[in-house]
């Protein structure tokens, strides 16, 4: 290798690999695009291999770059552990990216961050609710709170609670339908086809197999809105439906979902990630009965 290897260029390599563009990498690093480009070129020259294939659509890892990703991530984790040990006596600092579902983020997790950030002024938290596009393996996020347990990858997974669901309708709708638990005359709010694997969507398909939904939505927020408007019955989390003033039919659905805390195993030693993870576990535990609907 003609040029000396500079370990400080590794963050630029990881940032470009994760974002796919120099602009995205520069934004995540708080550096200029020219600086990031220069670091990538310097790293490639030092290693003697091309790390990225350049195209108009962005940067894509070469086979050599893909092979080096685990090593680069190990370096990143080691450096974070080193920094965490050094900062242990002066508070937690850094940026943590959390991926979670919108129905947990907006009413529960985001409001809880005030106490966490007050205790750790040097900490910042980025919350992504677009879970479908978040990949912990590519480090799109540092940790996640999810309703589905991952089955692959170098991840640490912990069950931290249960989200309970019930069949709900607006007060006026329930008064109009009268008593009983049969659904022959009921209208219901369905899920778009691409969400057919959701336990709630599957239950509705089984229970209303001969009836088309009166309206179909693609988010839990719109399911809740449609139910509040009296359009029909909807399968909703207990805590959201009850706080919206909806009434529950006494039917056991069997679609409750476990809540999982997921993080990349290499980040277990990161103090900034551990502090946020412990906070999230505490929030879910404190609201356990509310989330179960008991």
Describe this structure in words.
This protein is an alpha/beta fold. It has 3 domains: 7-85, Arc Repressor Mutant, subunit A (Orthogonal Bundle), CATH 1.10.10.10; 91-163 and 258-292, 3-Layer(aba) Sandwich (D-Maltodextrin-Binding Protein, domain 2); 165-255, D-Maltodextrin-Binding Protein, domain 2, CATH 3.40.190.10. 44% of the residues lie in helices and 20% in strands. The chain has helices at residues 10-19, 22-29, 33-47, 63-87, 102-119, 171-177, 199-207, 220-228, 238-243, 271-286, 288-292, and strands at 52-55, 58-61, 94-100, 123-128, 143-146, 155-163, 165-169, 189-191, 215-217, 234-237, 247-249, 257-264. The strands form 4 sheets. The chain has a 5-stranded mixed beta sheet with strand order 4-3-5-12-6. A 3-stranded antiparallel beta sheet has the order 10-7-11, with helices on both faces. Helix 7 links the parallel strand 8 (189-191) and strand 9. Helix 1 packs across helix 3. It starts with 9 loop residues before the first helix and ends with a helix. The model has no long low-confidence stretch (mean pLDDT 87).
